[in-house]
Amino acid sequence: MQAIAPEPIELHGAEAGLTPRRMVGIGLVVGLITIYGLAMIGGTMKAAQGNLVHLAPQTFYALLTLHGAGMISVVVLLTAVAHWYFLRNLLKLRVEVLLFSVVATVWGLLAAGAAVLGGGFGPGWTFLYPLPFIGTTWPAWSTGLFFIGVLFVGIGFAIFLLDILAGVIREYGGILQGLAFDTFFPKLRRPGKEVAPPTVIAATMVALDGLLTVAAGTVLVVALLARWASPTFPIDPLWIKNLTFFFGHTIANLTIYLSAGVIYAVLPAYTGRPWNTNKIYTLSWATSLLFVPWAWPHHLYMDFVQAPWLQLFGEASTYIATIPSAVVTIFGALLLVYRSNMRWRIGSVFFMAGLLGWLVGGIAAMLDATIPFNDVLHNTLWVPAHFHTYLLGGVFLFVIGFASYFVGEKAPPRAIVKVWEWLFFIGLVGFLLMFYAGGIDGVPRREATPPTPGPQLAAIATGFVVILLLGMTALLIEIWMRARRHAITGEGEGL
Amino acid sequence: MRSKPSFWYSVLAVLILLDVFGPALLGAGDPPLWLHHLEHAFLLAAGGGFGVLYARRHPKPYGDPGWLFAVIGLSAASLLLMLPDVYGNVDAFPVLHSLLHLAFVGIGYVGGYTAERYSPRSGVAWTLIVVMMGVITATGFGAPGPHV
Ligand code: HEM
Ligand SMILES: [Cu+2]
């Protein structure tokens, strides 16, 4: 008897089947399904603003809150997972840590989702004090649950960032080497080690600024939870508004820098050329590292009690933070592609289009961060116009491009894919133009029932959203089918 | 630092003792709120320093991921100490308050130790993050401020 009994097999880690590829695949599927649902909610909000469907105002504001908080969290998750995919070998990262980080984020999203859909929590994704507490239309439990959800998303991101930072220190010897300062001071370099590639530079910058952001976010959420638990807990509204945007602005902004890390790793595969580090990258990324955390005051230009030096410093920092890394990345990408026989696949098309979105959205953002323009554009639809340009028209395109690269695309896509791409981009551009048009006309953002021409523009935009969603659905199905096929043939990433 | 840890142990210990028991002995009241936040940050950091020094007795290039999970769980749990219901009740009793300050040292210690066991210099990074959070709280956590 005992001779036949099979040895019990102990499964854990890689042997249990949680390979890095599978983990990244899981992250992509979870993230993309969530984005899909949140995009449908976005379309519903537009339709409601255009009087095409009816939503009670409380429902509109609850959905607005879920859409904003959910989208930001999920693009952080997706860009982090994509970047991790390239960092895992360079920094010898462990898949269990990523799993833990993804699980914490998903728990956070579920808690926030339950607070909104079950309780109707709806002060907007920036939950600006005292909106979560005064004159509410939702029960107190949903307020607390939402903040606990935010805390979990922060914990998930912090795990990811700490692990990256530890990896950079372990493999390259320190933060300066992670930022490639050994291009200036070769003595810093570890014997036998190459200079850090651009994707590691981006990771180091994101880890440092990200941890600072999460630290601020934690203090913020704990203060709000304290106020929730005991209503006499004192909060200075100006202080917490600054903290809110320190956290909210920076975390949304960091998704573009995580994306840059992915671009540095993916585009060489499509062009067949390496993307090398040089001194210009070191300087540009060090500049962004130092100034990204100081751009937030451009959200407070209307607050006359804010110290004037902070306003000016915020304005200057916005420019200094944004320009260098955007320019070196976009210019570097063009140099890489120029006369390279770039292979045009879904991946490369989406990466190049995403760079355009980053550029246009970035310029629109800097306009809004310029004080005289802000006097006119503040809290108009110009704001969602610019951030949808670089989040939906930039970061999200990089995510789709990465997904396509990840499942492998050696063969050129079927002819019909061109049609899906056109649908997607026509829908995208039309949707964004309606936002910009509303901004120029001074239509306020975050209105369930906006004044004219808000409803008219929203009705047209809804049509574009439908086109966009059609194209997006078809493209994601295309990528999914390719993933299934390659799972059988064994074809892996890239091309 | 690697050569003479015992010297640093003593420096840290003296600083902690001075901070925790000095005011009570001198009969001084609580410092202003912002300074009090910085004081907490210092206590966490001092604990973290101890933890890092101690963890370096087990040099290992790359520890188990369990250490990292412990760090995160611990950091999250320590947030509870900041809640006013916990803090307000303790504040009324000087002895409890001193003990709470020792608890900060303890949390810092375990955090610095576990993080350093996870990966070299992670304990230092964790300690710096905690100090950063302390500085951020010092800008106005729990203060009503003039702008009501
Ligand atoms: C098809 C895709 C999408 C549609 C149809 C859509 C639609 C909308 C609409 C109608 C609003 C409200 C604007 C207002 O009147 O103030 C909004 C807000 C917002 N969206 Fe989207 N969106 C989409 C994708 C995204 C993506 C990909 C992101 C981020 C990665 C995103 C992040 C946000 C944020 C942060 C807000 C602000 C929420 C707030 O004001 O509290 N959206 N979106
Ligand atoms: Cu104290």
List the SSEs and their pairings.
The complex is a heterodimer of chains A (495) and B (148).
Chain A: H1 20-49, H2 57-90, H3 95-119, H4 140-172, H5 175-178, H6 198-229, H7 237-271, H8 279-291, H9 308-337, H10 346-368, H11 371-377, H12 382-407, H13 416-440, H14 454-489
Chain B: H1 5-26, H2 33-55, H3 65-78, H4 84-91, H5 94-118, H6 122-138
The structure holds protoporphyrin IX containing FE and copper (II) ion (CU).
How many distinct beta strands of chain A?
Answer: 0
Number of helices of chain A: 14
CATH superfamily placement of chain A: Cytochrome c oxidase-like, subunit I domain
User: How big a fraction of the residues of chain B is strand?
Assistant: under 5%
Could you please say which CATH topology of chain A applies here? Answer: Cytochrome C Oxidase, Chain A
User: Per the principal axes of the C-alpha atoms, what is the gross shape of chain A?
Assistant: globular
Tell me the structural class of chain B.
mainly alpha
Secondary-structure-derived class of chain A: mainly alpha
Give the low-pLDDT segments of chain B: none
% residues in beta strands of chain A: under 5%
Which two chains have the most extensive interface, and how many residues on each? Answer: A-B, 39 and 37 residues
Number of domains of chain B: 1
Distinct ligand kinds? protoporphyrin IX containing FE, copper (II) ion
The largest sheet of chain A, given as strand count, sense and whether it forms a barrel, is:
none
Largest sheet of chain B: none
Judging by the overall fold, what is the CATH architecture of chain A? Up-down Bundle
Oligomer: heterodimer
Mean pLDDT of chain B: 80
Structural notes for this entry:
The complex is a heterodimer of chains A (495) and B (148). Chain A has 14 helices and no strands. Chain A has helices spanning 20-49, 57-90, 95-119, 140-172, 175-178, 198-229, 237-271, 279-291, 308-337, 346-368, 371-377, 382-407, 416-440, 454-489. Chain A has a single domain, classed as Cytochrome c oxidase-like, subunit I domain (Cytochrome C Oxidase, Chain A, Up-down Bundle), CATH 1.20.210. The N and C termini of chain A lie far apart (52 Å). Chain A has 495 residues and is an all-alpha fold. By secondary structure, chain B is an all-alpha fold. Chain B has one domain. Helix content of chain B is 74%, strand content 0%. Chain B contains 6 helices and no strands. Chain B has helices at 5-26, 33-55, 65-78, 84-91, 94-118, 122-138. The site of copper (II) ion has 4 residues of chain B, from helix 2 and helix 5.
